[in-house]
Design a protein that fits this description.
The protein is α/β, with parallel strands linked by helices. The chain folds into 2 domains: 276 residues, UDP-N-acetylmuramoyl-L-alanine:D-glutamate ligase, CATH 3.40.1190.10; 133 residues, Alpha-Beta Complex (Protein-Tyrosine Phosphatase, Chain A), CATH 3.90.190.20. The strands form 3 sheets. An 8-stranded mixed β-sheet has the order 4-3-2-5-1-6-7-8, with helices on both faces. A 6-stranded mixed β-sheet has the order 12-13-17-14-15-16, sandwiched between helices. Strand 9 and strand 10 form a beta hairpin. Helix 11 runs parallel beside helix 12. The longest helix has 15 residues. It is globular, with a radius of gyration of 21 Å. The two termini are 41 Å apart. 50% of the residues are buried. The mean pLDDT is 93.
Length: 424
Amino acid sequence: MTIQATTLSDWLNLLEARHPVLIDMGLSRISLVKERLGIQFICPVITVGGTNGKGSTCAMLEAILLQAGYKVGLHTSPHLLRFNERARLGGEMVEDALLLKHFAIVEQARGDISLSYFEFTLLAILHLFMEADLDAVILEVGLGGRLDGVNCIDADVAIVTSVDIDHVSYLGDTREKIGLEKAGIYRSGKTAICSDPQPPASLVQHAESIGADLWLIGRDFNYAGDKQQWNYGGRDQRRNALGYPSLRGANQLLNASAALAALESLRMRLPVGAQEVRTGLVLVDLPGRFQVLPGRPTVVLDVAHNPHAAATLAQNLDNMGFHRYTFAVFGAMHDKDIAGVIAQLGGRIDHWCLTDLPLARAASASELEQQLRQAGVCDGAESSISCFASPAAAYANALSRAAENDRIAVFGSFLTVAGILAAL
């Protein structure tokens, strides 16, 4: 077919329309086109999977390696505001013109093979990275691991940050089933890291059965700290007197430890000094991960969209100190465990501002309201539920009602947080 797309927006719209199945798991299509493109890397490749914590771990790895003077390529997904967030070179988003060049190359190579939006754009970014003469490549796994497109690449180090219940229809309904899917990114003879304090037996058994070099938190690496600083201890390397990561949240030391374990395993190929680790952790930045906006009332942005992430958000909210009322701006996908998210956060939210989201598989605000009513939330002097057509409208309502000593927590789908960031 003749391609009429000339802008990045045109291309993305075309890809969505041409392969309308949003999640189309499997490696056969992407692997075939990858071979046609000759995609391979001489530099170390780190893949990062897991239920939660992937983005934070990737951001820490990138920040530390950049401080060490390495040229780094980072692919993440999904994006919040601009597609370009998915492709970073040297710490900067890749511009449209360079992306379009590699979109055209993938289009030429795929022939009659139908690629999903994720597969097509991932291949374009991988091809871009291959030609960029990089020192390190960091790839965030999209969904699961075993059948995710990123798994077409054999990584030198593969990290699974956490394993919990999410994407049940694709990955299974138990931690053991999901853990096995996540462990699919591990490779024989290569470093396999898991920073979940309670790794599923299925993950451990799979890593051992394929002969991966498995590093477990609490066994092969760990951390300890006080209010001022923390220390990392690995198999052969210690990092002492580290400042806390600039990313807020209860689990960030688990994520940071996984990043440092990965760097320890690569220390002969990518040596990194102590000061570069300290500076990278202090400077790392990632929007939408317990991001606290300046000013009053206190506003927290967090892409917590499953019960595991919601429990962490609840713990982080508890650690913030007193706020008279907490308003929630909440929107979520229909296939998420909405009741589980509400169960983790319900007692900490006084006023719910629920929002529709601009995606067919999103739950409507009225559906979210039904879940809250079933959970026992009712309207009164100290509590309320309101529904809105957009995140911006829900946020505007919360702002209009919140006093200086109140708090607004924006959470749920990436689209919820993105809607607020776009409106700021």
